[in-house]
Hints:
By secondary structure, the protein is mainly α. The protein is 77% helix and 0% strand. It is globular. The mean pLDDT is 83.
Amino acid sequence: MVKKLWDGFYARGWLVLALTTFMWAANVLAGRLAIDQISPMALVCLRWLLSAALMFALQRRDMVRAAPVLRANWPLLLAGGVLGFTGFNALFYVGAHHTTGVNISIIQGTIPIFTMLGAFLFYRTRLRPFQLLGLAMTLIGVLLIGAKGDFGTLAGFKFNIGDVYILLACMFYAAYTLALRNRPPVAGLTLFAAMAAIAFITSVPLFMWEIWTGGFFWPTPMGWLIMLYVAIFPSLISQIWFIRGVDLVGSSRASLFVNLVPVMGTILSVTLLGEGFALYHALALGLVLGGIFVAEKLGGQKRV
């Protein structure tokens, strides 16, 4: 009975991706709660250390069997580990120290748009008029967040550095999403295990830099709990499920589900963190989600 339910769940791309994006939305809370509890690069490095160790324990035999394929595709694995795992999370947790959970949640809605733009630039996927309109709407929404509702501030380039970090992180994850299009022919768990190991290795220099610059401090008990959460859920389970979702529905359609992150993340930030929700937040959220709807539904984006 349990196996039948699990098989039914794991065959439904929309359900797998919806729960995946909920874990990412909760990661917004983790990023904000981590302030003064665990330093950003320590959080990145330790989360991938734990995730990689768990995956190695579960997948070591499969990784040995898949070693020839993994070695032949090492540039893709390196790109995935650096962009989608190390780079995204480093920018995300640093950015969380400088901006709000509401801003983080809404800006993450740009990932589907960046994925479409990347598909156009690197795979020559044609952008239709509605997709261009959706891209414009989403970017206006992000600018509205950066301007805090006053576009006049943009003339002085008064961007919140945290918002900029989150936007760059979204670009990194969009590149990772597109890279999954050419994933090597190995099981999703094996692929993730390899990239998790790369993520840990490439996060070590960032951790050492944090120690050298005096930014590191020993995690508090709450900091350890936050690290455990992000290592198991946003790092491990959600990444495996996202790979599965891409297999089931394609990278562009899978990236569309990221538009649930702004909604769920905003709700969690307002209700659990007590953050304010201004009119410009509502307008920006409407523009971001509306832009994704226009680009995906009216634009007729094909599976890529």
